[in-house]
Amino acid sequence: MSCECERNKPLMERRSFLNKIVFGVGGIIGTVLSLPLIMAMLDPVLRDRGEKWRQVADLSEFKPGETKMVKFKNASPYNWGKKIADTAAYLRQEPDGGFIAFSVNCAHLGCPVRWEQRSELFLCPCHGGVYYKDGSRAAGPPPRGLYTYPVRVQGNHIEIQTSSLPITDINA
Amino acid sequence: MKKKLIKIWHWVDDRGGLSELFKPLTTHLVPPGAKWNYVWGSATLFCLIVQVLTGIALAFLYQPSADVAYQSLQYIENQALWGSFIRGLHNWGASGMVFLMGMHMIRVYINAAYKYPREMSWITGVILMGVTIVMAFTGQLLRWDNNGVWSAVVAAEQLGRIPLVGSSLAYFLLGGTTVGGETLNRFFAMHVFLFPAILFSIVGFHLYLVFRNGISEPPKAGRPVDPKTYRKWYKDMLQQKGVPFFPNAIWRDAVFSLFVLVVLVCLAIFVGAPELTSAPDLTNVDADPKPDWYFTWIFALFALMPRQIESYVIFFGPLIGIIVLFSVPFLSNKGERSPLRRPWAMGGILFIIVSICGLWYIGIKAPWSPHFNAKPLSEYSTVPKPSEEVKKGISLFNTMGCIYCHKIGDQGGIRGPELTDVQNRLTHDQMIIRIANGAENMPAYGGSLKKEEMEAIVSFLLQNKKQNSIE
């Protein structure tokens, strides 16, 4: 019996070696083939877009205390994106003359808030979030006030800096 | 001729082994009691087949590009041969699949068919449910109209609540830090290639398990499952009383699938797919993104829960749900299967069904949403012979947006309390305090209303007859 095993030993060793080769080669092939998939999924996410200042309005269009919607192009959009690469913001001139730009996305779940001129409120259609004219939370489920964009005045023009879509995290 | 065909078939079968492959399936024995309550799973699978065929049909017509997808949807809906019907069938097929999957799951739970030796069937079933929900959601976004893009934003926000990696996942979902030209292609690739591939392989495994472990016999009170003896008992039972799956069991599946098809076709023709809203445009805030019906109860949950805990619920809720679902067969994989002997399990499922139906009902009414299109009150029909101040109050009630949330007579929203008879509940001063300071779900108007404007609104609210002077 034992001599039988002795005889088979090289054969068994060879088999376990081949096993390792099969799994090793399989692993390499699997990795190589999954890389294109992963790369294609990550490309749009990892692409460096930078942040760009976009001209959105002229100083003459605003009076102190006024809030208006402005539109601008996202940073480095794809050529084929066309209109979908546009973002809106609410630009407000404070009574002291300074500007503040609010994201149109409700801080609750991102729905588009509407500016109600007369009552000076931002209202969200989804779950009834409400914000005051200064962007602070007034009522409803939002955990915080509206997000803002950086704004600057260049000569006669008002510019907004493009930013990521604001995402409310669990700690807000 | 006939002889020749038979000869060809014999050659194909000899070299291809088709009979060998399918014979075990056709002679497979099933318990005799597997009757109409056993059709839910096959009907779900039937819906999947409907989805594959209508999905391929739509892929011939749809343009998966952020720029023109909306135009191609318009084309499918209004011009393409049978386009509207195909889109309707795909839409209702998805609804049918989600609904029948839910019924299948409830049936399996009530009969405890997940117990030994069918735990893996339950586990793969839960994964299939997850993948089906992902398919339903990604499909909803391919309806690339204004609500579609805003729904993508809402989905990203929900992912954002996951601790640490939330915002990365949100941007991964959108394919960048904003919605853009790449967003739709991601959803298209996921909906049409990635998740179907995953779905098919797990469906294959799920079906293989049905044949390997056999269809669970209808439970009987007082006949518990004992893992030590069950397999032998089941085998003996099949030997004695089993009936062949084909055709004794499958005829019911076929008939029920035909019924499902008739229902889906009727829905596709007479109801159709959801109407397309305006073109996708993130600068058009005139959107009201609402989920399709199977998510309406979650939408309601998000609106109703206390906001202090909401962020945690958005993350921990699904997590706990997934853990509980996966642990079902491990919590009890033996013992009684009859619902009559599992009162707690039945109470639990009843509670879940009632809660979800309740949330559904509220979700459809959506009382938390302001009614932006509420018909303004008219000073002529609202209060009989109003004074100048009351007229001003009525006008302010409209223009300040009070009417979006408060109902007077039969006009206005239902977010806040109805104010038709508020004069009987609150005094003048109490009204002033409430309007000036607001409440948890009402903004404070102290900053935006002048004193005399506030007085005007209150003198209107104090009127005894605030609706329809005509009656």
Large-scale geometry of chain B: elongated
Shape of chain A: elongated
CATH topology of the largest domain in chain B: Cytochrome Bc1 Complex, Chain C
Contiguous uncertain segments of 5+ residues of chain B: none
Outline:
Chain A has 172 residues and is an alpha+beta fold.
Care to describe what's here?
With 172 residues, chain A is an alpha+beta fold. Chain A folds into 2 domains: 47 residues; 109 residues, Rieske [2Fe-2S] iron-sulphur domain (Rieske Iron-sulfur Protein, 3-layer Sandwich). In chain A, 26% of the residues lie in helices and 28% in strands. Chain A contains 1 helix and 11 strands. The mean pLDDT of chain A is 90. In chain B, α3 runs antiparallel to α5, α6 runs antiparallel to α9 and α12 packs across α14. Chain B is built from 19 helices and 2 strands. Chain B has 471 residues and is mainly α. Chain B is 63% helix and 1% strand. The mean pLDDT of chain B is 91. In chain B, strands 1-2 form a two-stranded antiparallel ribbon. Chain B folds into 2 domains: 330 residues, Cytochrome Bc1 Complex, Chain C; 83 residues, Cytochrome Bc1 Complex, Chain D, domain 2, CATH 1.10.760. Classes of the chains: A alpha+beta (172), B mainly alpha (471). Chains A and B meet through α1 and β3 of A and α7, α8, α9 and α13 of B.
Features:
heterodimer; A: 172 residues; alpha+beta; Rieske Iron-sulfur Protein; 2 domains; four-stranded antiparallel sheet; 1 helix; 28% strand; B: 471 residues; mainly alpha; Cytochrome Bc1 Complex, Chain C; Cytochrome Bc1 Complex, Chain D, domain 2; two-stranded antiparallel ribbon; 2 strands
Please give the structural blueprint.
The complex is a heterodimer of chains A (172) and B (471).
Chain A: H1 2-46, E1 53-58, E2 67-73, E3 86-93, E4 99-103, E5 114-116, E6 121-123, E7 130-132, E8 137-139, E9 148-149, E10 151-154, E11 157-161
Antiparallel strand pairs in A: 1-11, 2-3, 3-4, 4-9, 5-6, 6-7, 7-8, 10-11
Chain B: H1 2-16, H2 18-27, E1 29-30, H3 40-61, H4 69-78, H5 83-110, H6 119-142, H7 146-159, H8 166-174, H9 183-213, H10 230-241, E2 243-244, H11 245-270, H12 296-304, H13 307-331, H14 343-365, H15 379-382, H16 388-399, H17 402-405, H18 428-437, H19 451-461
Antiparallel strand pairs in B: 1-2
Helix pairs in contact in B: 3-5, 3-11, 4-5, 5-6, 5-11, 6-9, 6-13, 7-8, 12-14, 16-19, 18-19
